[in-house]
Design brief:
This is DNA-directed DNA polymerase. About 10% of the residues are buried. The chain has a four-stranded antiparallel beta sheet. It has about 190 residues and is an alpha+beta fold.
């Protein structure tokens, strides 16, 4: 568990949508803006396969033979994996607004952008630094701990695993799914 991330995302974009005639420019490529609102994220996660026991460390031989893609979301066994990995330049360009693999960092004044330094100085905020934050970044990751499904996503996106340190295997099943569905049904039927 890492908590909620701390970052500045892209704050402004401009659509070029053919369905909005007053702003559409046919000479430019189409560009759409979509607003999404995801609900019941905790309920969703709690209805997925979760660890139930049989925790064991893989041996060095098992680690060298390990292929994270041999296991899907519904596998009877899951893994927590400690790895070193890096983000290649082309993936940095693709994910610049929200880098993969966030980590806790002690943010110091020297790490701030020139703009953030000016704000920090202007409002006399140096006393709040250093400050530990869960931060998406492109730094190489050493001894990074992640769930096997997150690692599959990261590799599919282009992250490069440099070394597997340890892998913890465990039995898993969606043991909370019936309870979560019961709660969702009760909430739907409840008075507002």
């Amino acid at each position: 568990m890492r908590g909620g991330i701390c970052f500045l995302g892209k704050r402004h974009d401009k659509a070029n949508n053919p369905y909005v005639a007053e702003t559409y420019d046919e000479k430019k490529p189409c560009n759409y803006i979509v607003a999404l609102d995801a609900n019941n994220l905790y309920g969703y996660v709690m209805s997925q396969p979760l660890p139930i026991g049989n925790f064991s460390w893989l041996t060095p031989g098992e680690i060298s033979d390990f292929n994270v893609f041999n296991y899907d979301q519904n596998s009877k066994v899951g893994f927590i994996i400690e790895i070193d990995l890096k983000c290649p330049k082309q993936l940095q360009l693709k994910t610049n607004d929200l880098p993969l693999t966030p980590e806790h960092l002690n943010i110091t004044y020297d790490m701030l952008s020139p703009y953030s330094k000016r704000l920090c100085d202007k409002f006399n905020l140096k006393h709040v630094l250093p400050s530990k934050k869960l931060t998406p970044n492109f730094y190489p990751k050493k001894n990074y701990i992640t769930h096997y499904l997150n690692l599959q996503f990261d590799i599919d996106e282009g992250m490069i695993v440099e070394k597997y340190h340890r892998i913890l295997a465990f039995s898993q099943r969606p043991w909370l799914v019936e309870y979560i569905h019961f709660l969702i049904t009760k909430k739907k039927r409840g008075k507002r």
